[in-house]
Amino acid sequence: MDDDLNVTYITLGGYLEVQKYRYLYFMIMFTVYILIICCNSTIVCLIVIHRNLHEPMYIFIAALLINSVLYSTNIYPKLLIDFLSEKQMISFQACLFQTYIYYTLAASEFLLLSAMSYDRYVSICKPLQYPTIMRKTTIKVFLVSAWLVPACELVVSAVLNANIKLCRFILDGLFCNNAMFNLQCVRSAALSIYGVFMLLNIGLFPMLFVLFTYTRILIISYRSCREVRKKAAQTCLPHLLVLISFSFFITYDVVIVKLESNFPKLAHSIMTLQMIIYHPLFNPFIYGLKMKEISKHLKRLLNHTIKSALTV
Q1: How many C-beta neighbours within 10 Å does residue 228 have?
Q2: How far apart are the C-alpha atoms of 71 and 109, rounded to whole Å?
Q3: Read out DSSP for 111-136?
Q4: CA dist., res. 194 & res. 250, Å (int)
Q5: Is pLDDT above 60 for 3?
Q6: Over the stretch 269-278, which tens digit does the pLDDT of each residue have?
Q7: Is the residue at 20 inside a domain?
Q8: Fewer Cβ close by (within 10 Å): the C or N end of the chain?
Q9: What is the CATH classification number for the domain harbouring 56?
Q10: Does residue 228 form part of some domain?
Q11: Rounded distance, CA 21 to CA 18, Å?
Q12: Residue range 201-245, pLDDT digits in tens
């Protein structure tokens, strides 16, 4: 606690041998961050530039990739600063804000995946009604809701936690997440209940909705012709892979708070790094390779870049 400024600081205790390997850590994570921005931004630009990609499915993919960049930007700049700092510290208010943004964007990803699954369901199971249902207005409502609903729900939790008294000031992590609530002197029952409500409303229910819609798609496509089955496999598989990957990491992130005292620090740090490195790079990799139209434009861009480089 800084009495002069009346600011509470939290030490981030998840760093391992940072004094010894600070520059190596910095270079690795800086490179990863640049890769995340470039890979995601490239596919977003392709979707914006090419008119044949101005369809609901690709618009949702672009939104998902933008969400990945925002998710990474919430973490990486502070992480890079900490690698070069003597002490890895953050104010309680900044920590609370980072946690708020972190879970808002995580919940937005689930809601965007839900919107994408609904789009695929209508496209494959109700093709004649697709233009009527998936209008521009519907897409805009889905996109705004995906970011606005989690932001509104989580701001209540952030405001209620703003004046909570802390009894511990060392957070076992590389950045602020729900582990910060273990620092509280007394856990509020009301906040815990509200936390469960949020987890169900913007996490579990959207995930179950995605699984339900894809199950329906698989059942209907199995009964249909080969062309329908091929279309379902091509468009649904990437979304399912992203959902499984993200659900795994978020489940770990939520459950680890309960196991924090018994979970090895090294294993915790490795899993945390998997969350912030693997998933933001997994999205553009999956959509860039598995989505036929995006892959086609991406290959053209790479070929053009290579030819230009050779010409020079």
Answers
A1: 17
A2: 10
A3: HHHHHHHHHHHHHHH-TTTHHHHS-H
A4: 18
A5: no
A6: 777 788 888 8
A7: yes
A8: C
A9: 1.20.1070.10
A10: yes
A11: 5
A12: 888 898 889 889 988 888 887 777 777 777 777 777 777 888 888
